[in-house]
Amino acid sequence: MIRQNTCGAIIKQLHDELEKNANNVLRPQGLTMAQIGILLVFKDTPGNQCSLKELEQILHVAQSTAAGIVSRLEQKGLVEGFGDPEDKRIKMVRITSAGEECCRRAEASMAEAEKKLLSGLTETERNIFSCLLMKVRDSFQ
């Protein structure tokens, strides 16, 4: 692999490495990063539930992508779908207790991966790095 030293290329390399490692950790559980991403969304939603449409918007994915991931998570018993009591046309999704446990394990793995990623930096450098990353991210919004 040819290593480029542009910021975008380095960020992509970091992302690819983190995703590869995460998928290797998740594979024995039959999960993917995309599935964990949806499960983690529920931590920040009222009642640990939201509509399928809201998931699409939060994750910036197509309806078919969100529906497919949710369907696979339902088959694994990590989320459950149900109709909105006020409008049956709206599909709601909520995390199950098994899904919550899966999130706890995933968060522990992600914390370990981040620790490894940042191990070559001092605490001050980690804080600066984090602030700079957020500043760059926020410039896109």
Q: What does this entry look like structurally?
A:
- With 141 residues, the chain is mainly α.
- It has one domain (7-117): Winged helix-like DNA-binding domain superfamily/Winged helix DNA-binding domain (Arc Repressor Mutant, subunit A), CATH 1.10.10.
- Helix content is 62%, strand content 9%.
- It has six helices and three strands, in the order ααβααββαα.
- The chain has helices spanning 7-26, 33-41, 52-59, 63-75, 97-117, 123-138, and strands spanning 49-51, 79-83, 91-95.
- Strands 1-3-2 form a three-stranded antiparallel beta sheet.
- Strand 2 and strand 3 form a beta hairpin.
- Helix 3 crosses helix 4.
- The chain is globular, with a radius of gyration of 17 Å.
- The protein starts with 6 loop residues before the first helix and ends with a helix.
- The relative contact order is 0.11.
Jot down its keywords.
141 residues, mainly alpha, 3-stranded antiparallel sheet, 3 strands, 9% strand
Topology:
Layout: H1 7-26, H2 33-41, E1 49-51, H3 52-59, H4 63-75, E2 79-83, E3 91-95, H5 97-117, H6 123-138
Antiparallel strand pairs: 1-3, 2-3
Helix pairs in contact: 1-5, 3-4
